[in-house]
Amino acid sequence: MIRSFDPRTGEAFGPEFAATSEHEIEEIIAGAHRAFPLWSGTSPAKRAISLRAIADALDANAETLVEVADRETGLGKARLTGEVGRTTFQLRTFAQALESGDFVKPVLDAAVDAPLPVGHPRFLRTVIGIGPVVVFGASNFPFAFSVMGGDTASALAAGCPVVIKAHSAHPQTSQKVFDIALEALLNSGAPAGIIGLGHGHDFGKVVIADPRISAGAFTGSKSGGRALFDMAQSRTNPIPFYGELGSINPVIATTSGMTDPAAFATAYLDSLLLGNGQFCTNPSLLFVPNNKEFLDAMAVNLSAREAQPFLSKATKDLHDRNRDLLVSLTSGRVQNAKPAPETGLYTSAQVHIFAAQEISSIEAIHREYFGPTGIVITYESLGEAIAILDQLEGALAASIFSGESEPQLKEIIISLSRIAGRVCWNAWPTGVAVTTGQHHGGPYPATTSPLHTSVGVFAINRFLRPITLQGFSDELVSSLNVEGGSK
Ligand code: NAP
Q1: What pTM value is reported for the model?
Q2: Which of 96, 182, 242, 359 shows the smallest number of beta carbons within 10 Å?
C-alpha cells in the first residue's frame, strides 16, 4: 500500500493506494497502444485544444491541488501555487507550438528528373509521434515535473499517449491531477486510453519492459534512472529513455564577480536553500576567491536560517548519510544553520568549506547532496579552480560571476561549457524558464541523452521520430495530419 506522509510531522495521512495490479497495468498499456494511432492522427490544432483544456481545468482546481500537495511535500503554498501556474503555462506553450509548428522544420525536396545520382523522386522529410511513452514523475516538482509536467505535456503534444508512474512521495496529488486531466482530455475529444496512471514501485519496471511502449522519460535519482535506462536498453527492442538524473551545477566567482562579498553570500544561500536544496539546478559546488568577508558574512547569514522539511524520508536519509561522510572530510570548517526540529523530516543546513589545494580526490565534493548542503571551495589562483572544474562530470547548469575583462574568462567558459547544458552569466543556476531558447539537459549523469532538453518547446522532439515520405502528393500528405503536411 502507498501512503502519503506529512513531512512537517512525519505522520501518514489520507487514503491508501494499492499498487496497480498486473491486470490493471495490462489495461493501461493496451489502452495507450489503441489510442496511439487515433491521437497521433489527430490534427496538431485539435491536440492544442486538448492541452489548453487540461491547463484550464488545472487552473480551475489550483487551490485544492495546492492544499494536498503542500501537505504531501511541505514545499509551501506560495511555491506550489507558482508551480501550478508554471505547469499550465507549459501546457499552453506546447499548444501554441503545435499551432505555429515552430518546433518542426519539414524539408521538401522537389522531384528532380535527371540521371542518378542527381535525379530523385519528391521527398518530404518530417516527423511523427514515436508511440506510447512512460513518464516517471519527479518528487521535487509535484506539478511541473510530475503527472502533467513537461514530459507528459510534450509527449501529448507530439501525438503520444502517456502511461504515468505516480511518485510515491505525492500519491494523492498525482491521482487528483490525473483525474482532472483525464476528464479534460476526454471532454475535448481525445481518445480513451490517452493517459493512464499507476502506483507502486514495480509499476514502472513492468511498463518500461513492455514492447508496446516506445520511449521513457524520468526525473529522479542517478541510481533509479540508470536502472530504468538499462532496462530500456536491454529490451529486445531498445527504446530511447530520457533520464534527468544527478547534477551538482558548479558556480565560479572571480574577484571582479564578487564586488560585494556579503550580498554575494546571501544570494548564494538563497539559491542553495531554495526548496530545501531539493532542486535539480541547486548550486551544490561554489568556487570563490579566498575572501574572509564572504566567509564571515555567510556564517552569520546561515546561522539565522530555519530548517525546512525534506520531501520524503528516503530523500532525507540518503542526504544525511552522504553528509555524514562529508563531515569526516571537512576537518571542522563547517558553517551551520539553526538546529532542526526533532519531529518531522527536518535537517538543518550546512556549508562545508575546502581550500582548493587540499582537494586530493574530487570524489567527496563530486556528489549531489540533494538537500540543504553546500560545498564552497576557496582558491588562491583561478588556475586551481579551473583544474578542479576540468575533472567534473556533466551538469544541467553552471554559472560564472565575473567582470568581462577577467584574463582567464574564456578558459572558465570553455571549461563550464564542456560539462553543462546551460551556462549562466552573473546569475544563479536555480530557476529554469519555459521558453523556446531553453536547454535543460547536459552530459551524463545530468541526463542520459545530452542531445535533448526536458524543458521548453524543443522537449517535444524527444517524442517525435523523423520520417521521409517519398513520392507522396501534396493532397495525400495533407490528409495524413503529419507535421508540416499542410505546409
Ligand atoms: P528516485 O528514487 O529515483 O525515484 C523516482 C521515480 O522512479 C519514482 O517513481 C520511483 O518509484 C521510480 N524508480 C526509481 N528507481 C526505480 C527502479 N529501479 N525501478 C522502478 N522504478 C524506480 O528519485 P526521487 O525519490 O524522486 O528522488 C531522490 C533522488 O533523486 C534525490 O536524492 C536526487 O538525487 C534525485 N533527484 C534529481 C532530480 C533532478 O532533476 N536531477 C530531481 C529530483 C530528484 P517509487 O517512488 O515507487 O520508489
Answers
A1: 0.94
A2: 96
Atom of ligand 1 nearest to the CA of 247: 41
Query: Which residue segments constitute the domains of the chain, with CATH numbers given?
Result: 2-245+447-480 (3.40.605.10), 251-425 (3.40.309.10)
CA gap 233, 223 in Å, rounded: 15
- The cell for 117 is 545520382
Q: Annotated catalytic sites, by residue?
A: 244, 280
With cell 511541505, the residue in question is 74
Neighbours of 351 (CB within 10 A): 25
CB distance 279 to ligand 1 below 6 Å: no
Sheet of 251-253: strand order equals 334-336, 350-355, 373-379, 285-289, 251-253, 395-401, 420-425
Chain-centroid distance of CA 300 in Å reads 33
Alpha-carbon span 289 to 377, nearest angstrom: 8
Give the strand pairing for 11-17 and 2-6.
antiparallel
CB 106 within 8 A of CB 125: yes
Q: How far apart are CA 406 and CA 223, in angstroms?
A: 39
Could you tell me if 425 and 309 are in contact, meaning their C-beta atoms sit under 8 angstroms apart? no
**Which numbered atom of ligand 1 lies nearest the CA of 371?**
32
Q: In 3-state terms, what secondary structure has residue 297?
A: helix
pLDDT digits (tens, 9 = 90+) for 255-269: 999 999 999 999 999
Q: What is the 3-state secondary structure (H, E, C) of 363-399?
A: CCCCCCCCCCEEEEEEECCHHHHHHHHCCCCCEEEEE
Q: Which residues contact 39 (CB under 8 A, 6 or more apart)?
A: 47, 129, 156, 159, 160, 161, 190, 191, 194
For ligand 1, whether the C-beta of 315 sits within 6 Å is yes
Exposed e or buried b per residue across 3-31, where buried means at least 16 C-beta atoms within 10 angstroms of its C-beta: ebbbbbeeeeeeeebeebeeebbeebbeb
Q: Summarize pLDDT for 455-477 with one digit per residue, the tens.
A: 999 999 999 999 999 999 988 98
Counting ligand 1 atoms within 8 A of each CB, the residue from 175, 201, 242 with the most, and so the one to mutate, is 201
Distance CA 241, CA 462 (A): 9
